[in-house]
């Protein structure tokens, strides 16, 4: 039987990816453009490097500069995004921060900074696009970036663990409400990936060795490792997948 690979194509779709200037978000932007999508990158700094990578493959990319620590920014992001290519079809909530500190020393400011970006604004971005997608009846795809710490406790990152556990819970909660509108809400839980987010961890030889020795694949992941799952969940191939978090972790959770 001939495989219908067009179901994996994102041609003609528009994807909005937060945290698009670097790391996993940049990798997803480039992969989506390569698969035919128009890409809108949201970031608080210029996405010049992402734009250049996408221009090199003749893709379409537009950036929206916005600081996602402020919820009030969301209506502007949605309004601007809808103007660029007409309609956003795919939302990837990727922007996130981590703060390492013993739990007894965590400040309210640091707690709120992590929760606002990783959890609160993920919810309100989902809500903002669903408010457009439910009445227009064209459906949509939401992909939230979770973490191994959606499953595990982690060490010295309590706010991050709380926020990423919430991301996995929210993914299920929103799927339960919105699946009937052809809105697919799913998540990807990256394992330990070599990006800015893990720079401190990778610089700590003891922690880095501990982590590496537990990864069955025997290496840190790369932004490219995440792109297959990101394309799948954004595509028509995933239209009956709802509320699930796919781990892309080199086997970490299998241990
Ligand atoms: P990264 O290189 O640090 O990228 C994080 C992205 O989020 C950057 O684009 C960053 O922009 C953006 N961001 C942070 N605060 C923002 C704000 N206030 N407003 C707008 N954008 C903001 O890390 P990454 O590894 O690619 O992380 C991407 C996602 O994957 C995060 O949600 C992270 O928690 C998750 N994750 C990563 C790993 C890993 O091992 N790397 C594992 C599990 C989950 P700036 O460059 O301006 O800071």
Could you describe the 3D structure shown?
α1 crosses α8 (223-234) and α4 (108-136) runs parallel beside α5 (158-178). This protein starts with 13 loop residues before the first strand and ends in a 7-residue tail after the last strand. Strands 3-2-1-4-5-6-7 form a seven-stranded parallel beta sheet, sandwiched between helices. The chain is α/β, with parallel strands linked by helices. It has helices at 23-34, 48-55, 74-85, 108-136, 158-178, 199-203, 205-214, 223-234, and strands at residues 14-18, 38-43, 60-65, 90-93, 140-145, 183-190, 245-248. Helices cover 43% and strands 15% of the residues. β1 (14-18), α1 (23-34) and β2 (38-43) form a beta-alpha-beta unit. Bound molecules: NADP nicotinamide-adenine-dinucleotide phosphate (NAP). Residues 19, 21-25, 43-45, 67-69, 94-97, 117, 145, 147, 190, 192-193, 195-198 line the site of NADP nicotinamide-adenine-dinucleotide phosphate.
Radius of gyration: 18 Å
Uncertain segments: none
**In which range does the helix fraction lie?**
40-55%
Instruction: Please provide the ordered H/E string of secondary-structure elements.
Output: EHEHEHEHEHEHHHE
How many β-strand runs? 7
Shape: globular
Produce the secondary structure layout.
Elements: E1 14-18, H1 23-34, E2 38-43, H2 48-55, E3 60-65, H3 74-85, E4 90-93, H4 108-136, E5 140-145, H5 158-178, E6 183-190, H6 199-203, H7 205-214, H8 223-234, E7 245-248
Parallel strand pairs: 1-2, 1-4, 2-3, 4-5, 5-6, 6-7
The structure holds NADP nicotinamide-adenine-dinucleotide phosphate.
């Amino acid at each position: 039987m001939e495989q219908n690979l067009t179901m994996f194509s994102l041609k003609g779709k528009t994807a909005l990816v937060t945290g698009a200037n670097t790391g996993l978000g940049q990798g997803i932007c480039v992969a989506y453009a390569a698969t035919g999508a128009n890409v809108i990158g949201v970031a608080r700094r210029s996405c010049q490097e992402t734009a250049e990578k996408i221009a090199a493959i003749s893709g379409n990319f537009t950036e929206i500069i916005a600081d996602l620590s402020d919820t009030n920014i969301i209506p502007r992001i949605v309004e601007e995004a809808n103007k660029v290519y007409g309609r956003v079809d795919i939302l990837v909530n990727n922007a996130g921060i981590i703060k390492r500190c013993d739990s007894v020393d965590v400040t309210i400011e640091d707690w709120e900074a992590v929760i606002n970006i990783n959890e609160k604004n993920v919810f309100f971005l989902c809500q903002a696009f669903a408010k457009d997608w439910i009445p227009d009846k064209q459906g949509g795809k939401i992909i939230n970036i979770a973490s191994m710490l959606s499953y595990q406790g982690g060490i010295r990152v309590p706010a991050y663990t709380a926020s990423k556990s919430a991301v996995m819970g929210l993914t299920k909660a929103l799927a339960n409400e919105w699946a009937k509108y052809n809105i697919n809400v799913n998540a990807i839980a990256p394992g330990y990936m070599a990006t800015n987010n893990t720079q401190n961890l990778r610089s700590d030889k003891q922690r880095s060795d501990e982590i590496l020795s537990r990864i069955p694949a025997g290496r840190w992941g790369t932004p490219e490792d995440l792109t297959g799952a990101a394309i799948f969940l954004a595509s028509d191939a995933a239209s009956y997948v709802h509320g699930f978090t796919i781990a892309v972790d080199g086997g970490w959770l299998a241990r």
